[in-house]
Fold these 2 entries.
Entry 1:
Amino acid sequence: MTIEIIIQAIVSGLLMGFIYALIAAGLSLIFGLMEIVNFAHGEHLMLSMFSSFWLWTLLGLDPIISIPITMLILAISGILTHYLLIRYILKAKMLVQICATFGLSIFLRSLAQFLWTPDFRYIANPLLEGRLEIAGIFIGQPQFYASLVCLLSFLLLYLFVNKSETGLALQATAQDREAAETLGINSNKMFALGWALGLSCVSIAGAMMSNFFFIFPDVGVHFALFAFVAVALGGFGSIIGCLVAGIIIGLVESLGGLLIDPSYKLLYVFFIYLIIVIYRPQGLFGR
Amino acid sequence: MNSNLQNAKLEPLWHTNKIVIALIFFLVASLLFFPFINPSNFQLHLMIMIFMYAVMAQSWNVIAGFSGQISLGHVIFFGIGGYTSSFFYVEYGISPWIGIIIGIFFSSLVAIAIGIPMLRLSGHYFAIATLLIGFSFQIIFQRWDLIGAASGLWIPLNWDNPWLTLQFHESKIPYYYIFLIVFLLSYFYIWILYRSKIGFKLRAIRDDPQAATSLGIPVAKYKIIAFVISAILMSPMGSLFAQYILVIEPARMFDIEISIIVLLIAVMGGVGNVWGPLIGTIILIPLSEYTRVFFGGTGGSVDLIIYGILIMLICIFRPNGLISFFPKNILERKKF
């Protein structure tokens, strides 16, 4: 095994890590705001991939060009999710909240299976194809640009949450709902915004991944698992934690697959999660 | 809570509301006589599935409802039970009846092995960790050559002594009675457990772990006990299900969907109550089996779509489960 192969694995792990980080950031944002884990996160990823797919099939729009439309679709579905479902379970027990989003995930996944059959689909001839070669390391172009776009969106999200006035209002609502209300922040609107933002993050990742990934109703399960792991690893509600955890997961996945046995990739990630969480139950950056 | 603890010691089982006892007797009697009215194979299958899921949901209820931890990987005990009894039968010809007991033993060991490190986790961390453990078991069993890896185990057919090999080819009625008896025993056991001292201590832990500790309840020990009790209920269902379908594979025995359906049934019926999981099962399982038959096996997942909508509606309108439709004093103990 040469050093090049290891560097290759590190690079592809990092690239996937940025994508996981953005997916997890969406989840973490929603959790930080209202302490609800969106167990339908994988299904929202699946929806955004299908949205890219149909925009490409029906209108001939390339996934990169249709990103704004996909974002809009997912943002609207996030707002609908909040107003039709989440609004009613904000004060419910954790168990009921878990169940509600599980119900949503079952509903969305089986609806996708009903409408679009469980077939595997893919986008043929997207704008991004082929691979780059940098100093003897090969990188698939779609993967490279996907992780670049994901990293950029991640930074934008971070700036938005920490610098803009709306972002600060979001944080205020996350910290103390009642106190924020007395300051004239409508928490209901903030929650809806949180869902719209969270699902927009997922939609960007989904749109970029539709370039190089098969699209089928169960596609989100695997990514949602990694997102849960990333959010818990990074500490629930911490956005920077998501980035670090996403990178850890990407590296563990690709290096573990290279050095030990690729068929147990998921296990290594789970193992790392269990070890870290048992020794540090609040996650790496948890409050 | 303190007065409840004293009541638990004082009040014997037969002080239950007489209407409830009469109702239970009537129900058990009609279940025993059900096969005599010549039900179709589908109806028998439906009843068997109801008995199975009722016990599985109850097993989940022991952890979530009695000790407050939300497990999303409960299917592992189902899979371990199924694989243990099948493996010992296929390899060594050991009767599945003994296999069930070995399965319970292994499941309890796994419950302890998982339970101890997981004690530190709570809330979402516990839930996600159990979800990952469920997936890990599926991955490991899919690649474990000794037990047939991804293609699974085929239980060899044996027509000689059906009660020993637990295979009934002519009719589903023996399966019906076996599942019925296991179902009745499990529910009776949980009913007693619920009103026993262990039951009260577990519920005290669920309501307030710190207060429970200050009352001298060893929280860690009782959480492990709850985990083991839950595994003991779940494991035989896996063994019996394996004998019922006679072909087992990791994708089926460790299907993450089972963990989730069990959770949804319990929440739908009402968590923390002995009868909640039963009510949830009686509604959800026929619903899913009938819609599956009605819409056919054309890959249409209409049953799951309805499932999903129903769950969301219940979470919104009846967060305490369907059991909250019943007046409380009928289900709870009542003094005379």
Entry 2:
Amino acid sequence: MPAQRSVTVQPGKTVTTKVHFTIAQGYHVNSNKPNSDLLIPTTVKIQSTPQFVVSKLTYPAGEEFALKFAPEEKLSVYAGDVAVQAAIKASSKAKVGSYTLTGELHYQACNDRSCFPPKTLPLEIAVTVKK
Amino acid sequence: MKQNTLVLAAVVIAVSAMIYAGAYKSRHAAEPEGADISRIAGNVKGKVAPDFELKTLDGKTVRLSDLKGKAVLLNFWATWCGPCKIEMPWFVDLQKQYGPQGLQIVGIAMDDSDDKTISDFLKEMGVNYTIVKGKESVGVAYGGVLGLPTTFFIGRDGKIVDQAAGLVSRSEIEQNIKISLAQGAAATQKGAIK
């Protein structure tokens, strides 16, 4: 389970947050917009609730990457530290208190010689509603 | 909109065999078939390649034992695997070149894509060798396929000549094909090759 910090929002307001993840050195994952329909994009999903609507997810652009044996074929990947931005709007009727939003990070990782099966990691975001 | 950008989650993707093994194990746990397949592990060179029974996209059954007397290049791959895509044209050429000498390349598709996606991909790649739909149990039988591509070179005598974990050079693949064709050749000269 990923580490988390809490985010605070007022009823009826929107808070912009970032989901950070780090890809181990020597590995990469496809960006959210890989250069082929066959490649599996990295996605973040955060479930909306009656109190909160996840209105927008913004992914960073991918970096160009080419495998040693196919230098002409450019892939769009994430490597190192990656942040996906999410906008969370609290309902005007949201009551003061602490909530947890759940979601998942889906990715498929490779290094320069091998690829590994797609994987999904759970996410939790603690949200505090204050007046 | 109030911009209150916060770091919410620090997700460390530890891309490792351990993580893969977890996913692999969970997928395999849901697959009851193939439990009687023998397994190999560790240094696989010289060990008898485990037999398997898998289906092609059009439903035909392929057994490794049916290829007795041939040299077999067994390639675990997936449509989402970039390195796999690089070596497929090499396999097409090598099947043309060495097929008449007794080589049979068998690609085991290890992804969850539907048959049409796989079929369209194979057409696009011009694949001329046998493709079967994989099962995790076969990967397990071959010592646990931790990443793709993974390739086994099997001699005419059914024993494993070598294994390549990940993409290797075409010349290395070709060299292993030559060794596979030579291994056990004497024993199969009396028309054992089908």
